[in-house]
């Protein structure tokens, strides 16, 4: 028995696929799925770049604080 409604993500009907409320021929369906996959990869890469930039900023800030503390100890 097929699931219906929101539980139905995709199913094959002959040479067509039912996905997101409409029928797609195989070529368009797989192209769309590949585009979705590539979009997720791009979003992941953007988030990764943001995380690296944030880490770098925090690391530089901590290094400056450490250098300042050493400077204070040396000249106190």
Number of domains: 1
Rounded to the nearest angstrom, the distance between the terminal CA atoms is 79 Å
Q: Mean pLDDT score, rounded?
A: 83
Total number of helices: 1
Coiled coil: 45-72
Keywords: Coiled coil
Outline the structure in words:
The chain has one helix at residues 26-74; strands at 10-13, 16-19, 22-25. By secondary structure, it is an alpha+beta fold. The protein has one domain (5-74). Residues 1-7 have low confidence and may be disordered.
Brief descriptors of the model:
single chain, 3 strands, alpha+beta, 76 residues
Q: Which helices and strands, and how do they pair?
A:
Layout: E1 10-13, E2 16-19, E3 22-25, H1 26-74
Antiparallel strand pairs: 1-2, 2-3
At a glance:
Helix content is 64%, strand content 16%. The chain has one helix spanning 26-74, and strands at 10-13, 16-19, 22-25.
